[in-house]
């Protein structure tokens, strides 16, 4: 019996070694496929959403301290939305950040320089391997140190352009008016700004997610939902999990509830849908 157990243990060890050897000898294409699962993409996406929420919260706090009317700001972003609660207007600001930082995600070069690389112009194997390599390399770096040591790199360029597009100099001047800020530096990322670290961290996560998306075959697709669209459980998730009873009654009375706006875009990883997170438009309040 002892001999049989010893032989069984040896067989188990041999099987594990064979499995490791098989993975080590696996062709590069198969190694890539083993890594690129829906779960991997979803995990990186969740981290990206966490950092995007964090940046939006910091931005909202600065807006409050500067005396901004958040309701008016939200109405400028997505007009005429009926919020279930007054505080829900912050979702419009989160939407502005998310959709802005994810803009051009479907472009291979990502940076907003007016050019667009077509898929037909890229060899699939080269595209996948390069994207995965960039994902792995960037994930091992500290984005703050990368910005400091290589201020002209592609990632730093991406950060500067996205910041300039999302945070207009006039907005920044209002938010940071109590800080000593040179007029000429408004609209550009500065290490002294309270927005610097959270923005760079958010941008870094989007950069990595983009590189990961382009390592898949087919490429991960991004989508958002148009305002007024009917709610679909397949493609959408209500970002407000506890729906107000009045909104639910309203939804039953008029068939399906309607989308107010997209907060977080959705993604298609092969045939798997990662739902877009949307804010539902509630019933009009009686005046």
TrEMBL record:
Regions crossing the membrane: none
Any one Gene Ontology BP term: response to red or far red light
Ranges of residues in domain GIL1/IRKI C-terminal: 222-279
Signal sequence, start to end: none
InterPro entries assigned to the protein according to its UniProt record, in alphabetical order: GIL1-like, GIL1_IRKI_C
Protein name: GIL1/IRKI C-terminal domain-containing protein
Organism: Ensete ventricosum (Abyssinian banana)
């Amino acid at each position: 019996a002892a001999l049989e157990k010893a032989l069984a243990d040896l067989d188990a060890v041999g099987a594990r070694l064979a499995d490791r050897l098989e993975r080590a000898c696996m062709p590069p294409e198969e190694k890539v496929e083993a890594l690129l699962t829906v779960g991997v993409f979803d995990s990186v996406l969740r981290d990206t959403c966490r950092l995007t929420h964090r940046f939006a919260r910091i931005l909202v706090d600065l807006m409050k301290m500067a005396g901004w009317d958040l309701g008016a700001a939200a109405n400028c972003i997505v007009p005429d939305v009926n919020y279930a609660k007054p505080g829900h207007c912050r979702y419009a600001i989160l939407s502005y950040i998310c959709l802005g930082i994810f803009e051009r995600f479907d472009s291979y070069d990502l940076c907003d320089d007016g050019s667009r690389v077509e898929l037909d112009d890229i060899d699939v194997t080269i595209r996948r391997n390069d994207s995965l390599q960039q994902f792995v390399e960037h994930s091992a770096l500290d984005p703050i140190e990368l910005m400091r040591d290589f201020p002209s790199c592609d990632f730093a360029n991406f950060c500067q352009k996205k910041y300039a597009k999302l945070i207009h100099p006039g907005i920044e001047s209002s938010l940071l008016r109590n800080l000593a800020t040179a007029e000429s530096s408004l609209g550009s990322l500065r290490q002294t700004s309270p927005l610097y670290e959270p923005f760079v961290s958010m941008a870094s996560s989007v950069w990595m997610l983009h590189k990961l998306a382009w390592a898949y075959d087919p490429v991960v697709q991004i989508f958002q939902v148009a305002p007024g669209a009917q709610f679909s459980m397949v493609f959408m998730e209500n970002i407000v999990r506890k729906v107000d009873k009045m909104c639910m009654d309203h939804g039953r009375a008029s068939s399906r509830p309607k989308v107010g706006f997209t907060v977080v875009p959705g993604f298609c990883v092969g045939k798997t849908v990662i739902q877009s997170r949307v804010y539902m438009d509630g019933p009009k309040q009686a005046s």
